[in-house]
Amino acid sequence: MAIKDLSLAAKTTISGFMAGINKSNVKGAGLEFSQYRSYQPGDDLRWLDWRMYARSDRYYIRESEIETSIAVRLVIDASASMKHRDGQFTKIEYARYVAACLGCLAHNQGDAVGLYVLQQQQVQALQPRKDPQHMARFYYQLEQIAPAGSFAAATQYKQLLTGETTRELLIVITDLYDRDGEIAQLLKTCSALRHEIIVLHLMGRNELEMDYSGYTALEDLETGEIVGISNRDAAGYRERMQQYLAAVRTQQLDQGIAYYLMPMNEPVDKALRDFLKQRNKIMR
């Protein structure tokens, strides 16, 4: 994350663990062998397996798994709570880096990449495309994100994210902080359209463990509300935090949404590698 050029940082990070984020189960003439099936009139003769014919005196078609190109929409929460700092980095800096890596990965495997930045004052939209010039705009827009206000209202993003009738992959990068259920409504709306949705939940280690030594009060970044804290609160806080995270995970899974907690003290390359491994297990 010390590399300021997002494009270079993303390429550096994903180097060495290139793994598809949308591997398809469609059968066809791909590279990875899947199964044999009996020849049917009209099948492409190029995919006949002559070795199987020599052994069995029957015609078999060799099928493989192929990868399909899809639209990957990266949705970034740019509300003021994303200015929260844990150590050297803020949530929005971590989110930028994660989005840059996933966008680079998707582009490299032929997917169209789009970017949507949601906040109260405005919604920025970069519709999914595949060309290299588009990726330059993608990285530029990521670098320009300036968190402010609360999360966007449904009237601002609904047409942008729900207009497509084809299934897409939506990756929502957020801290899930809202006061009136705005983020929950976004996820519910997109889920109803049968899009595949992944929520990457960013949390600072100091948030998870209530590690604010030296402080006696905290300010809500979106409302300005001041909350007093003390060391005596820590044990009860951690227990409530675990209950909250369990409830959030259950809520997302009940809607068919994949949920991944990303603590900000975890290196981005490790977090993404673990995320991709888990997703590949689910897709199999």
Amount of beta strand: 15-25%
Structure annotation, total helices = 9
Which sheet architecture does the biggest sheet show? Answer: 6 strands, mixed
What would you report as the Rg, rounded to the nearest angstrom? 22 Å
- Strands of the widest sheet, in order across it, are 8-7-4-9-10-13
CATH superfamily of the largest domain: von Willebrand factor, type A domain
Outline the structure in words.
- This protein has helices at about 5-15, 50-55, 90-110, 130-145, 155-160, 180-190, 205-210, 235-255, 270-284, and strands at about 25-30, 30-40, 60-65, 70-75, 85, 90, 110-120, 125-130, 170-175, 195-205, 215-220, 225-230, 260-265.
- β7 and β8 (about 125-130) form a beta hairpin.
- It is built from 9 helices and 13 strands.
- A 6-stranded mixed beta sheet has the order 8-7-4-9-10-13, with helices on both faces. Strands 1-3-2 form a 3-stranded antiparallel beta sheet, covered by helices on one side. Strands 5-6 form a two-stranded antiparallel ribbon.
- The chain has 2 domains: about 5-20 and about 70-284, 3-Layer(aba) Sandwich (Rossmann fold), CATH 3.40.50; about 25-65, no CATH class.
- α1 crosses α3 (about 90-110) and α3 (about 90-110) runs antiparallel to α4 (about 130-145).
- The longest helix has 21 residues, at about 235-255.
- Helices cover about 40% and strands about 25% of the residues.
- The chain has about 280 residues and is an alpha/beta fold.
- InterPro entries: DUF58 (IPR002881), vWFA_dom_sf (IPR036465).
- It comes from Deminuibacter soli.
- This is DUF58 domain-containing protein.
